[in-house]
Amino acid sequence: PQDQPDYVNGVACIQTGLSPLDLLDHLQRIEHEQGRERLRRWGERTLDLDILLYANTVVNSERLTIPHYDMCQREFVIVPLYEIAPHLVLPDGQKLSELVPRFIPHQMHIIC
User: pLDDT of 36-51, one tens digit each?
Assistant: First the structure.
């Protein structure tokens, strides 16, 4: 958001035996341990861990939406996701490689 300082975004691919909701609980516990306070929606954060995808699973619940809401419209999600999984096909059949061109040239800077 515009009213917040710059921050670092990244993506990671993990393997887990946790269910999607158990994984969400675990990630929120990590956020809390790192000092995150949820004072307002889209508010400042010390750490923000999101579940973008969970294999080909689709979840629509009050607590969790997978694939992550609006991820296909977000350069800061699609560009780094493409870097680690260029052949990825989303649960709805969209190819990640077909989404990336809409963000080129992009404003992202690789730092590591």
Answer: 766 666 556 667 889 9
Specify whether 25 is catalytic: no
Is 48 a catalytic site residue?
Answer: yes
Selected residue with higher pLDDT from 7 and 32: 32
> Which residue, 10, 15, 16, is CA-closest to 83?
10
Q: Domain with 38 in it: what CATH number?
A: 3.30.70.560
Report yes or no on 10 lying in a domain: no
Catalytic residue among 50, 63, 74, 102: 50
Cβ 63 vs Cβ 24: under 8 Å: yes
Q: Is 36 a catalytic residue?
A: yes
DSSP designation for 89:
B
The structural domain count of the chain equals: 1
Domain enclosing residue 95, as ranges: 20-103
Q: List the catalytic residue out of 48, 74, 92, 102.
A: 48
Assess whether 3 carries a catalytic annotation.
no
